[in-house]
Amino acid sequence: MDKEARRKAKEVAKKPVKEEKPAKRAREEPGVIGQLIPKASRVVSDSKLATPSSLASALGVKVSVARALLRELVRSGEAVLVNKHRGFLIVKASRS
After folding, report:
1. pLDDT in tens, 2-17
2. Residues 53-62: tens digit of each pLDDT
């Protein structure tokens, strides 16, 4: 009985279970990235090399959005991937 009473006392003392909050959006809307591609292309073509952090500071967006923009520019052929290490991309403008 002693153990059972202590267990019940611990259950009462525990914090109430938090209600689940709706999940935050992990990514920006695709339309936002589509609107920023021409600006990002101009920034990349004006610089020798571009990284996600340099693009983010030039456009005033989050680094994750800048990383997605760079990936999209490389995929479309407007930029060339120079080096990649994990999430860090270094790109330069394609001169075609």
Report:
1. 888 888 877 776 666 6
2. 999 999 999 9
Enclosing domain of residue 83:
32-96
Give a yes or no: residue 18 inside a domain: no
**pLDDT at res. 17:** 64
Mean pLDDT of the chain, nearest integer:
83
89: CATH = 1.10.10.10
- The pTM of this model reads 0.66
Q: 7 in a domain, yes or no?
A: no
15 CB burial (10 A radius; 0-12, 13-18, 19+): exposed
Number of structural domains (the chain) is 1
Q: Is 71 exposed, middle or buried (0-12, 13-18, 19+ CB in 10 A)?
A: middle
In a domain, 8, yes or no: no
Neighbours of 91 (CB within 10 A): 23
* Residues 79 and 44 sit within 8 Å (Cβ to Cβ): yes
